[in-house]
Fold this sequence. Notes:
single chain; mainly alpha; three-stranded antiparallel sheet; 14 helices; 3 strands; about 55% helix
Amino acid sequence: MTDLVPRQPDATPAAYDAATLAVLAAMEEAAEKHLDAIRPHNTKRGYANDWALWEEFHGWLAERTGQPLPLTAVTKGTLVGFVVWLDTIKLAAPNSIDRRITGVTVTARSEHGIEVPKAATVAARQALKPLKNDPERQARGRGKAAAVTPEQLRQMNAAVADGLTGLRDRALWLMAFGIAGRSAEVAALRSDSIVHVSQGLEVHVPAVKGRPPRDVVVSYGKNVDTCPVRAWLTWRAAAGITAGPAFLPITVWGQVGDRTLSPEAVREIIARNAERAGVAVRLTGHSMRAGFITTSRRAGKREEKIRAQSGHAENSPAFWGYIREADKWTDAASEDIGL
């Protein structure tokens, strides 16, 4: 029987001369530079945080296998293992894991010259697929943030990791609480905009996402374990920070990086430390902000003072929701009514 479509000759790789190869290599390099130039700044920061988590995963893996692997070994096995680690150890939401797969593969290619095999990314997303169908996993990180209490902050301090990472983490979550800061604001803090004075710290909180900047003060705490001033000064001295970002990434080998932490990294540091300490509720980045407002209100602070610290507008529904939560047991309607 005659074939309806004539048989095509076997494809053979094109053979290029040295000059052509040089031009192609230059075009590849130019393409990477162009893509990097047009990539949004927040995306770059997100990718940097993804790679920092990749480094942390490798450190965790090395502790269990006794054999450190090169970070450039982005294979089917390591990438699927990364997915499982993010799900079971970090309790990350499936959509967050999906983004991290992309961040690791893009960083491996653009900064380390490693082309990740398609089979590896396909396998990683196959491992991710059933997680996306799990409602409990999809709900991770959603809902109203629990307001942290001073008791929970002390609980976190008691379980903090040793070394520079622990000093940074404690300073970060206490600073977030002290300034009633959003995760993006904490990530954007500059060390030279945190001024030590006799009463505590004068902190310039920069503008983020169109919100106006503000200047706040953070007083010394009575309890050493939860004093944001002492925690900041200790971290700053240990890390040798004199200018630039207030909080920096730290590798699994204890080396301080030079990139600004992303807001997502701030949230994960807080959630990870709360989980490590066995805090009964799941804390998020917003828990520090909510916790400051409710704690300050219960201590009798005036509404306008609290709003100046948190940067809320006078008619903010979120702010007044926190105030109502703090006030619900103050002169409760059911109290002392003869029951």
